[in-house]
Amino acid sequence: MDVNMLSYHETMSREGVVLYYNGPISQGVVEGVGDMMRRKMVLEENGMLLAQKVFSVLVEQMQNVICYARDICTPTACMGTGQIMVGRSGEQFYVACGNPVSRKREDRIRERIDTVNGMTREELKAYYKEQRRKGPDEDSCGAGLGFIEMARKASRPLQYRFDPIDDDTSFFAVKVHV
After folding, report:
1. How many CA atoms lie within 13 A of 76 on its CB side?
2. Are 17 and 85 in contact (CB under 8 A)?
């Protein structure tokens, strides 16, 4: 086995990656990684508003992994497997995640992201209030506000893609610039 960690370190440094995680994601991981990232950004004096936006998007993305890549579920908790990346590009940060999803969910996820990507800030605010009042869809495991929240924090449209894994599963990736 050839493990060249220096090569990984150099590649990620060159790409501006400040956090990378690949593996199981539980609520405990969300809380621990989220808290660590928020503290790092505050210590580096990135500004409280920017730190809060990155933290918020990071938490939304990790919760999506838990919800949509439900590898292990008990009556009280679920765990998904995915990747999380936070990076810096100039003065901006980006938060990206990827995880397997059922191909049956692809169209619905695509529709949700395309909807928020086509909205202005004012439209996003009104849509958020409308969806909050309406409540989550039947197939949503959360409040159904995650992509709206991410779009409200983003400095540009959400980027996403689906790569087929097999007949039933795709790998979903989304990147949010903050």
Report:
1. 0
2. yes
- 40-69 burial, b at 16+ Cβ within 10 Å, e below that, comes to ebeeeebeeebbebbbbbbbbbbbbbbbbb
- Model pLDDT for residues 37-86, shown as the tens digit of each residue: 888 888 887 788 888 899 999 999 998 888 876 666 666 677 788 999 99
Residue 175 CA to residue 123 CA, distance in Å, equals 21
Global model pTM greater than 0.85: yes
Task: Write the secondary structure of 54-115 as one string of H (helix), E (strand) and C (coil).
Answer: HHHHHHHHHHHHHHHCEEEECCCCEEEEEEEEEEEECCEEEEEEEEEEEHHHHHHHHHHHHH
Tell me if 34 sits within 8 A of 65, measured CB to CB.
no
Q: Which of 150, 169, 152 is nearest to 160 (CA)?
A: 150
Task: Specify whether the CB–CB gap between 165 and 137 falls below 8 A.
Answer: no
User: For residues 54 and 86, what is the distance between their CA atoms, to the nearest angstrom?
Assistant: 8
Give phi and psi for 106, each to the nearest 5. -55, -50
